[in-house]
């Protein structure tokens, strides 16, 4: 299978990369994350991903635009649905890119985190698969949560302390 894998960050990629390559899948990564705030955090995550990709020889398509305005405009006054909107924005781009690039399917490293809304991600991805006429590949990467943490520490990766958006940053640090 030729898979386009949306990547939220390098630490969340480590286990999915291992699991998918062990299955013999051809993976191309796709970094598109306009939700990450502030720009310095976006840059740290991008640099960490580039370093890891070189280490494991993974081809990645990088969307390095920092269009936080798009994200904030969609979220404003919709804070109760912010995660779903965020998933939709990123997975919409991924599904479209997968179709455009002739991939067999798309997936996301968001399915690795125990802190993400797993069922909501699946539902959105399945709807986008139909819309773009491309398969969504589901894998419950949470089974490798501990291994991913161990490996990301072994690689000496920058490990962020919040999901990415200004709301998750607030929730993490403002107590």
Task: Quickly list its features.
11% strand; 53% helix; Rossmann fold; 5-stranded parallel beta sheet; 175 residues
Question: What is this entry, summarized?
Answer:
By secondary structure, the chain is α/β, with parallel strands linked by helices. Helix content is 53%, strand content 11%.
How are the SSEs placed, and which strands pair?
Layout: E1 2-6, H1 10-22, E2 26-31, H2 39-56, E3 60-62, H3 68-75, H4 82-101, E4 105-108, H5 118-132, E5 135-136, H6 145-154, H7 166-173
Helix pairs in contact: 1-6, 4-5
The largest sheet has its strands arranged as: 3-2-1-4-5
Report, as a whole number of angstroms, the end-to-end distance.
45 Å
The description of the largest β-sheet is: 5 strands, parallel
Return the CATH class.
Answer: Alpha Beta
Assembly annotation: single chain
Amount of beta strand: 5-15%
The tally of domains stands at: 1
Which superfamily, in CATH terms, is the homologous superfamily? HUPs
User: Do you know the CATH topology?
Assistant: Rossmann fold
Order of helices and strands: EHEHEHHEHEHH
3D shape: globular
Assigned CATH architecture: 3-Layer(aba) Sandwich
Query: Would you tell me the overall average pLDDT?
Result: 96
Number of strands: 5
Broad structural category: alpha/beta
Give the % helix.
40-55%
- The total of helices stands at 7
Uncertain runs: none
Cα-based radius of gyration, to the nearest Å: 15 Å
């Amino acid at each position: 299978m030729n898979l386009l894998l949306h990547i939220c960050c390098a630490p969340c990629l480590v286990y999915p990369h291992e699991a998918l390559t062990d299955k013999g899948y051809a993976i191309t990564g796709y970094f598109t994350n306009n939700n990450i705030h502030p720009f310095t955090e976006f840059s740290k995550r991008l640099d960490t991903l580039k370093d890891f990709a070189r280490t494991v020889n993974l081809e990645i398509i990088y969307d390095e635009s920092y269009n936080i305005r798009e994200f904030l405009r969609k979220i404003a006054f919709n804070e109760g649905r912010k995660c779903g909107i965020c998933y939709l924005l990123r997975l919409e781009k991924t599904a479209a890119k997968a179709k455009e690039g002739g991939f067999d399917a798309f997936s996301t490293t968001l399915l690795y985190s125990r802190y993400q809304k797993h069922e909501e991600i699946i539902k959105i991805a399945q709807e986008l698969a139909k819309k773009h006429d491309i398969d969504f590949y589901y894998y419950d990467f949470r089974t490798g949560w501990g291994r991913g943490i161990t490996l990301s520490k072994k690689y000496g990766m920058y490990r962020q302390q919040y999901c990415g958006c200004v709301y998750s940053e607030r929730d993490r640090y403002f107590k």
